[in-house]
Each structure stands twice: as structure tokens, then as C-alpha cells.
């Protein structure tokens, strides 16, 4: 049985999807971009701030599902410019214990919603 996960501490969906779905013990979170949920503003002044906002949005969704970054088993990172990989990776890595970090892939794409530089989705388990 699936349960819809929603929090006002992360950006509201802007289409026919949910922030996350909990199915059994597995959480599937939609891709997050750097929208400040309090203001609705995009945070794109620099790649570090943008990536931190993405990770804070993911943290809010995890919290709404009674989870933390320790529960994340898989992450997918989509970036507009592979030249930003090192900066994104540094910020992303600061949210995980390196020894228990999830599996992941990082893919450069042609375009992302609202022309952001990074979008990250996760799968987590209780």
C-alpha cells in the first residue's frame, strides 16, 4: 500500500506528482530543485547555495517520512554542467557519512526544470 508523503517544508509539486511516496518500507522521493519552500524563490546565485537548498528540501521530505539521510540507499543527481560536479559533490557529500553513503549516479543533462543547475532524487528505506 502506498502512502503520500507531503511537507510544507519542501516545495509543493508543480504537476501531477507527489513529493514522495512511501511503499512498504521504501520511500521514493521526486527530484528536488533549489526552490525555497518559504518564499517560492529559486536559489541559483551560486552552485553551493543551490545544492544546499536541494539537499535541505530532501531533508524535509525525509523528515516527513520519519527518516534521515542515513536511510537513503540510492541517489540520482542530474546536472546541467559537469564542470560543477566537484562543487555539487562536496555539498552533497556533507549530508552523508562517507562510510554509509548511498549508491548513486550523476548525469549531465541538456535542461532541467526552471533552468536550474542541479536536481536530485532519492530512494530511502526504513
Description:
With 126 residues, the protein is α+β, with helices and mostly antiparallel strands. Strands 1-2-3-6-4-5 form a six-stranded mixed sheet, with helices on one face. The protein starts with a strand and ends with a strand. The chain has one domain (2-125): 2-Layer Sandwich (60s Ribosomal Protein L30, Chain: A), CATH 3.30.1330.40. It is built from two helices and six strands.
Gist of the model:
This protein is α+β, with helices and mostly antiparallel strands and 126 residues long. It is built from two helices and six strands; from the N terminus they run E-E-E-H-E-H-E-E. Helix 1 runs parallel beside helix 2.
Runs in which pLDDT lies below 50 for 5 or more consecutive residues are none
Element-level helix/strand string: EEEHEHEE
**Principal-axes shape call:** globular
Main beta sheet: strand number and arrangement?
Answer: 6 strands, mixed
CATH homologous superfamily assignment: RutC-like
Instruction: Please identify the structural class as seen in this structure.
Output: alpha+beta
User: Do you know the CATH topology?
Assistant: 60s Ribosomal Protein L30, Chain: A
Q: How many runs of DSSP E, i.e. beta strands?
A: 6
CATH class: Alpha Beta
* Average pLDDT score: 97
Give me the CATH architecture, please: 2-Layer Sandwich
Protein name: Reactive intermediate/imine deaminase
InterPro entries: RidA (IPR006056), RutC-like_sf (IPR035959), YjgF/YER057c/UK114 (IPR006175)
Family: Belongs to the RutC family.
